[in-house]
Amino acid sequence: MKRFTREAVLVLLAIPILLWTLLPIYHIFLFSISSKDSAFSGALWPDQPTIRNFGTIMREEHFYLHHFWVQIWNSLWIAVAAGAITLAVATCAAFAISRLKVRGGRTVMNLALFTYFIPAAFLAIPMYKAMGIYGLLNNRWSLVLAMVTLAAPYAIWVLKQASDKLPYELDEAAKIDGATPLQLFRLVYLPLMTPSLVAIGTYALLLAWNEYLYAYLLLSHEQTITLAVALGHFIAADDSPWELLMATGLVYALPPAAIYYAFRR
Prior knowledge:
With 265 residues, this protein is mostly helical. The chain contains twelve helices and no strands.
């Protein structure tokens, strides 16, 4: 009875939270299937729903959508590159700190985590200046490196905590069998860390996919900006095409949703 009561309370709490979370998404969808005249009608469902907005996006027929496919490719390229590099750096660092017991490794990790005491917005201008010094402004690699800088400390910390939970006897058994540190890393560490690696890779990828501030500062050309920055251009117009903005935002949300669904286990 106690278990039933506890689950009932959790369900009663979850339902309003779920509805509150889905409400903005529903309104995005509502705008995306509405015409320009009926977008602000206030109805729970448009009188004449249409998918014309999505056709406009795919054919790049609006002024703000002339580089849609290039910009969504930029977003995907930057997100995948940032996720892969963050995962490689964090995995090697966590392995060295946790399993190889590198001297000073924990101190370096704690100092890296200390950077999170400073808001990311405060680091934007120094990051902009650093990228300018190295000639990386308006280059996709500038945003990739910025995202790796922001994501790596947390990724290292999470992977290090997960690595500490692995039985150290496995390492000793592998060493007795003659395994080198590289073989230990490849044959023992990576297979056991797969769930944590997928979680951290997804985190870093989505962090770069949704980034706006650094993308806005470091990238400026229509051919190099991400779609997140391009979406901001819609609001600059006096008569913003909200139905196209919401339809584009819905399309932009599909890849992260697909990634999350694919790796949900």
